[in-house]
Amino acid sequence: MTISTESMDGEITRVLLDGRLDIQGAATIDLRMNVLAGSCKFLLVDLCNVSFLGSMGLRSLVLPAQAVHRRGGKVALFGPPPMVEEVLKASNIDKVIPIFHDLDSAVASLC
Amino acid sequence: MHDAQDRLELDSRLTELSRVQPWIEALANQNGFSEDALFAMQLCIEEALANVILHGYRGEPGHPIVIEASVSAGSLWFVMDDQAGPFSPLEPLPNNWTEPATLESIEPGGHGIRLLARFAGSLTYERLSDSNRLTIGFPLPCKDASS
């Protein structure tokens, strides 16, 4: 699992995740995600290249999203592959963190 | 199918999960499962193992977990045995689970059992004399009648 970021217009930070967000993958990104959650106002988490998501990976998405929200910011999820989206929906994460497959819509939701 | 390839003996450490993924992938490929089915298998086994390690054995290494795989009655079965105290992963499943109203109200963790129940083809728990047994089944893919 790798994590990288890029700055977008409107104070949006795009977080690009790549690989398996399993227990090991979650441990790899947790620290970086927590730092981002403490410093960024709008997070666009790009899941296009996430090939697997388990419950520990969910935790790595929800905890930073809660931290950003508490600081008055917003988080959106972008482009999860179908099975990854199934996991998000089965856990009801989609009810509290919006999922988009269109980048413009994802960006608009954060502005 | 009863050879060494169909049995995996693990220690109660999360790092052991790295041995499980390729084992499941080989079994899935042998039996013609799709990528989505492989995803479901890996998800279920990872969640079940994490449950045993973190809750059954309370995160203590040095305890055995054995997974045996077999094909029968149109399904691929994973039978997971551990020697932790009685612990059914199915019991905590809440029947009255409500949708989270806000981001703050959702639990960041604790989704593993729900995912296991959602993605497994079938799921059975038995308490044996001194061990827990979880059996997870996945229906074999239908063979194309024209081939």
Description:
- The complex is a heterodimer of chains A (111) and B (147).
- Chain A has 111 residues and is of the alpha/beta class.
- In chain A, 45% of the residues lie in helices and 32% in strands.
- Chain A has four helices and five strands.
- Chain A has helices spanning 23-39, 55-70, 82-90, 103-110; strands at residues 2-8, 12-21, 42-53, 74-78, 99-100.
- In chain A, strands 1-2-3-4-5 form a five-stranded mixed beta sheet, with helices on both faces.
- In chain A, helix 1 (23-39) runs parallel beside helix 2.
- Chain A is globular, with a radius of gyration of 12 Å.
- Chain B has 147 residues and is α+β, with helices and mostly antiparallel strands.
- In chain B, 30% of the residues lie in helices and 24% in strands.
- Chain B is built from three helices and five strands.
- Chain B has helices spanning 17-30, 35-56, 112-119; strands spanning 7-11, 64-72, 75-82, 122-127, 132-139.
- Chain B is globular, with a radius of gyration of 16 Å.
- The two termini of chain B are 24 Å apart.
- The interface between A and B is medium-sized, with 26 and 29 residues.
